[in-house]
Amino acid sequence: MTTVGVVTDSCAGIPEELIEGLGIEVVPYYIHRGKETLRDLVDVQRREFFEWLATAKELPKTANPSAGDFLEAYKKVAERTKGIVSIHMTSWGSGAYQSATVASEMLKQTHPEARVEVIDTKQTAMGYGYMAVEAARAALAGKSLDEVVELVRGMIPKMTMIQTADTLRYLYMGGRIGRAQHLVGSLLNIKPLIGMEDGVVVPLGQARSRRKAYEKMVEMMEERLGLGAKIKVAFTHVAALEEVEKLRAMVESRFSCQEVLISELSPALGVHAGPGMTGVCFFPVE
């Protein structure tokens, strides 16, 4: 029994064993594919969806959970704890933060003793998924709600996400391209690198091959943290496990990795990145 419950959503991409082991409550996004409405990682799973996505001529629409969805999750968690921290991706890219905020106010009508802290992490994928993991670990260690919230807010400026892909077409088609729009027209043999800055997708450069792109990613990590720095790192991908293992080997040879996680994006987020995306989310460890 902990004093704090952790809620997030399916786009965090947290590995299933950590969700179960840490007791994290995950609220699914929605995917509208033709006449189908699918709950992310409930009605549709990664392999089937990404195989279909590679051949799709039109991207399906995605939608964040509603305030009612979050309210249902909050009520469930409030049955076992009085404090809830709700951790979500950048509010610039999704309405989940706003829906969760509305739900936190609605909860007061039925559970006035419960307190919910909703956090806009300005990140995406395991950039905020890792924050939910660390929050759940702190909760299990007996930390108070205020202490858990302080931990998460302290991680926000330390978290870095870098990713590359063969194309930014999926980000562009999904309207999530941010300030990296000029990279969309790059030649096929150019691999764009993007990251997050103040919650918005930004261009970080480009390379002429995947290997060169991975080398640049590692160089950026060294510039930010220094060679041999202690880090916790999550490698993210969309149907590209072999590629992300190559990036992992390069990172592990240059840094002291205190924890390594492998995370395939969920369908609702992977639809915007596209098959073949590889990336890294990391933060320094004291």
Structural class call reads alpha/beta
In order across it, which strands form the biggest sheet?
10-9-8-13-11-12
Mean pLDDT over all positions: 92
Number of helices, where a helix is a run of at least 4 consecutive DSSP H or I residues: 10
Describe this structure in words.
The chain is of the alpha/beta class and 286 residues long. The chain folds into two domains: 4-29 and 64-155, Rossmann fold; 160-284, Hypothetical Protein Tm841, Chain: A,domain 3, CATH 3.30.1180.10. Helices cover 38% and strands 27% of the residues. The chain contains ten helices and 13 strands. It has helices at residues 16-22, 46-53, 67-78, 96-110, 126-140, 145-155, 169-173, 210-225, 241-252, 267-273, and strands spanning 4-9, 25-27, 30-33, 36-39, 61-63, 83-88, 115-120, 160-164, 191-197, 200-207, 230-237, 256-264, 278-284. The strands form three sheets. A six-stranded mixed β-sheet has the order 10-9-8-13-11-12, sandwiched between helices. Strand 6, helix 4 and strand 7 (115-120) form a beta-alpha-beta unit. Helix 3 (67-78) crosses helix 4 (96-110) and helix 5 (126-140) runs antiparallel to helix 6.
